[in-house]
Amino acid sequence: MSALVTLNNGLKMPLVGLGCWKIPNEVCADQIYNAIKLGYRLFDGATDYGNEVEFGQGIKRAIDENIVKRSDLFIVSKLWNSFHHPDHVKLNVMKNLKDLGLDYIDLYYIHFPIAFKFVPIEEKYPPGFYSGVQEQADGVIGTERVGLADTYHAMESLVDEGLIKSIGISNYNGGLVYDVLNYCRIKPVALQVEHHPYLTQSNLVEFCKKNHIQVVAYSSFGPQSYVELNSEVAIDTVPLFEHPIIKKIAESHGSGITTSQVLLRWATQQGVAIIPKSSKKERLLANLKIDQALTLTEEELKEINNLNKNLRFNNPWDWMNMKFPIFA
């Protein structure tokens, strides 16, 4: 099992989990089940991933076979942008719980600080980016006038009702994190952001540490996931797996160490939690045991940090014809 970190509400969360983004529905249940057998306890899902029914089937199988108890697992999901209105927040989490087959979610994030137009669950789920046929034809994302504080206070009510244990925020910049701390009644336990050597976000990470908010990295391998999505920026960027400095550091730690392990250890050694995805047993085990595999020197950490280009691959500014400047 992964090392544990204690969140600001006292709950313990694994430092290494399995990300569920882009796990195909037809294999999701088996991948979750097999990961639990290997020792994974943190699973990071979301409304928008569209695989929570199968995600829940994998959990149920492991619990039914007495491999784990529900209390052994740390299950994560995310409120999608279309459900930001306070009247709709609970609708989303109840759908998450039904699909997962669970009574509560350990950590529930606001996925993006952007409110899309509401789409009823019976019309389309997950809603994706468009609220209707015309919007899709025009390539325009419909939005609603909903303040982030209103959405957040509705999330706090979910904690009060016992539907979720913890609140998280995702894809928030520093100013938005600071703002949350000024209006929240229940403090967010985690901030999930894109984080890799090309986008170290060191000031944001430091600010979160000072305020006891756990930083969780997604896209730890940088452009890797976005090449598959035909991102021009990702395609034109040197893959971190092939970067000379990352390769040099991996080689210096012995023949069994890979560049992917160096990238993951760079994050965890600085206290950042990770949720890499893999379908291969050997890689899943290597990711889970990353803290035991190697320890980077201070000089190596510095070398990797110096690769920062403030290069973001998941940027709402590039979504369709809309321009959301949350990272501008």
Textual characterization of the structure:
- This protein has 328 residues and is of the alpha/beta class.
- It has one domain: TIM Barrel (Alpha-Beta Barrel), CATH 3.20.20.
- Helices cover 39% and strands 11% of the residues.
- The protein has helices at residues 25-38, 52-64, 86-100, 133-138, 148-160, 174-183, 202-210, 224-227, 232-235, 244-252, 259-268, 281-288, 290-293, 298-305; strands at 4-6, 12-14, 18-19, 42-44, 74-79, 107-110, 167-170, 190-194, 214-218, 273-274.
- It has an eight-stranded parallel β-sheet with strand order 3-4-5-6-7-8-9-10. A two-stranded antiparallel ribbon has the order 1-2.
- Strand 5 (74-79), helix 3 and strand 6 (107-110) form a beta-alpha-beta unit.
- Helix 3 (86-100) packs across helix 5 (148-160) and helix 10 packs across helix 11.
- The chain is globular, with a radius of gyration of 19 Å.
- The termini are far apart.
- The model has no long low-confidence stretch (mean pLDDT 96).
Short description:
Helices cover 39% and strands 11% of the residues. It has 328 residues and is an alpha/beta fold.
Helix content: 25-40%
According to CATH, what is the class? Alpha Beta
Q: How are strands sequenced across the largest beta sheet?
A: 3-4-5-6-7-8-9-10
Low-confidence regions: none
- CATH topology descriptor: TIM Barrel
The main sheet comes to:
8 strands, parallel
Structural class: alpha/beta
Shape: globular
Task: Indicate the proportion of strand residues.
Answer: 5-15%
- Number of helical segments with 4 or more residues: 14
What's the average pLDDT? 96
| Strand and helix order | EEEHEHEHEHHEHEHEHHHHEHHH
Task: Please provide the count of β strands.
Answer: 10
The number of distinct structural domains comes to 1
- CATH architecture, by name, is Alpha-Beta Barrel
Overall radius of gyration: 19 Å
- Say which CATH homologous superfamily is assigned: NADP-dependent oxidoreductase domain
Q: How far do the termini sit from each other? A: 38 Å
